[in-house]
Design a protein that fits this description.
The chain is an all-alpha fold. It is built from 20 helices and five strands. β1 and β2 form a beta hairpin. α6 packs across α15 and α11 packs antiparallel against α19. The radius of gyration is 23 Å and the shape is globular.
């Protein structure tokens, strides 16, 4: 049998309930998202123990994010070809073994190499969770599943820094990696037992597309991610940050041209973008990825530099956001299956932008903690209303043969948004610090942020707080683009069908 031009291999019959499989997979999904943030807390300890400088230790995080983001388009397609469960297990195995390698390494070079392998494992895992939701949950019940997926993503951003602080302070930096080993083993056992073997679609692999996408994504992500480190100038010889970014854009343009014209099966099925909601959801999640990443830097720098909190205590400020988001997530998930997504996601976008504008306006020396917690609580409301409606809307109409490809595209745009947010906020923070603290520019905003912020003298607190508040206006403004995107969502097909059925007149009773 052929579906969408590709042969199909049947899987095992689906279980009565798809929920156990989803719970099994989100264990690993949670682990890889925690690992994206946990290393930042351990950076000073890694520098001291391995004798590394700032330029070298930055690559412990950068190498992971590069290896994670660049292959997502490819790894999503692999799930369609070999089955999302199988690809997830391969990625989980690689991630778990690489975590053990990270903890055992004794040099910064080997740690960076292990983080590259770990990132590849994470890239194999991420699209499969979303693809399994798409392929095992009916379109009209997918909102609750996506709410769990989104809640896990939101809580992981909080748990990473807190867990990192506890492990580094109590056991040493190696344990931020060792902790993944037992979790990975448990996740593997659950996935083997509970994740069904879904049908596979024997796609022809677009080798040219694979090469072009890998090169283009690497140039683009590397340039954006490392631009601040090189002051947006020369990297080596004739190679500059901007030449890499421009080259990445050009290569991705060639990649899209090739996808539109190749006679074999393309790596990215551009026909997916004919679905209005899929296209708009990708725009929206790019702005959310941008804002989630960008907002954390000014808030954490303010908490440590002006409020004098430790990294772990600074992360605890986000507890209200995680708790409120988690409480709202399942309720919003149910409503996502019943209400037009533009209202839910639109409300979330408005709350998100408003919370950042609010926080930016109040940051000052001597700010009571309770006053800062108010916009942070509103951030929790925003997160509760954003993730499930956007993700569900992106996948409602995807053909099953392209569930993995669609998930790969969605996660790629989210990750590109995060990289853009990181690069843009770093540049803006440096600019705002230079404007508000001319004598301190580079002291608190450079690569050694932990040391510079912790040592900030009280006389500079007011200007630094102003700079961090002004920086929060950027992600708030970017979210307005996402608001326009979600406000333009079309009514999902299952809701339109339900309303059409409800509008049909009852058949006339048969004559007596």
């Amino acid at each position: 049998m052929a579906v969408g031009g590709s042969a199909v291999t049947a899987g095992k019959p689906l279980p009565a309930s798809p929920w156990p499989a989803l719970w099994a997979m989100v264990i690993g999904f949670f682990m890889i998202l925690v690992d994206s943030t946990i290393v930042s807390v351990a950076t000073p300890a890694i520098m001291s123990d391995l004798g590394a400088d700032v330029d070298a230790v930055v690559w412990v995080t950068s190498a992971y994010l590069l290896a994670y983001a660049v292959p997502l388009l490819i790894t999503g397609r692999l799930g369609d070809r070999f089955g999302p469960g199988r690809v997830y297990l391969v990625g989980l195995t690689i991630f778990t073994l690489a975590s053990l390698w990270c903890g055992l390494t004794g040099s910064i070079g080997m740690l960076v190499a292990a983080r590259v392998v770990q990132g590849i494992g994470a890239s194999l895992m991420t699209p499969q969770t979303m693809a399994v939701i798409t392929r095992t949950f009916q379109a009209e019940t997918r909102g609750r599943a996506m709410s769990l997926w989104g809640a896990v993503a939101g809580v992981a951003t909080l748990v990473g820094p807190i867990l990192g602080g506890v492990l580094v302070d109590g056991l040493g930096w190696e344990w931020i990696f060792f902790i993944n080993v037992p979790v990975g083993v448990i996740a593997f056992v659950f996935a083997v037992r509970l994740v069904p073997a879904l049908e596979t679609h024997v796609h022809k692999f677009d080798i040219v597309g694979v090469v072009l996408s890998a090169i283009g994504m690497f140039l683009l992500v590397f340039g954006l991610q490392e631009g601040q480190a090189y002051d947006w100038g020369t990297i080596a010889g004739p190679v500059s940050v901007w030449s890499l970014i421009i080259a990445g854009v050009v290569v991705m343009g060639v990649f899209l041209w090739w996808q539109a014209r190749t006679r074999s099966e393309p790596l990215v099925t551009l026909a997916l973008f004919r679905d209005r909601n899929f296209s708009l959801a990708n725009v929206a999640i790019t702005t959310v990825g941008f804002a989630i990443t960008a907002m954390a830097f000014p808030l954490m720098f303010y908490a440590q530099g002006v409020m004098g909190l430790s990294p772990t205590r600074s992360a605890l400020l986000l507890v209200p956001m995680a708790v409120i988001s988690g409480v709202l997530a399942l309720w919003v998930g149910r409503k996502t299956d019943q209400v037009h997504p533009r209202w839910l996601a639109g409300f979330g976008m408005v709350c998100f932008a408003a919370s950042l504008f609010w926080a930016g306006a109040i940051l000052r020396p001597g700010l009571p903690v309770w006053e800062l917690l108010l916009p942070i609580a509103l951030l929790g409301v925003a997160n509760g209303f954003i993730w499930a409606p956007i993700a569900t809307t992106a996948t409602r109409n995807l053909p099953m043969s392209n569930a993995g490809s669609g998930a790969g595209i969605y996660n790629t745009t989210r990750q590109v948004g995060a990289v853009l947010g990181s690069a843009a906020i770093a540049t803006l923070m440096a600019s705002r610090i230079a404007a508000n603290l001319p004598a301190a520019a580079g002291g608190a905003g450079g690569g050694s942020a932990e040391a510079g912020v912790a040592a900030l003298p009280p006389a500079l607190h007011e200007g630094f707080a102003t700079a961090m508040g002004q920086s929060l206006y950027l992600p708030a403004a970017v979210l307005l683009i996402g608001l326009v995107a979600v406000a333009s969502f079309a009514m999902p097909r299952h809701l339109a069908a339900r309303r059409a059925a409800a509008a049909e007149p009852d058949p006339a009773p048969a004559p007596a």
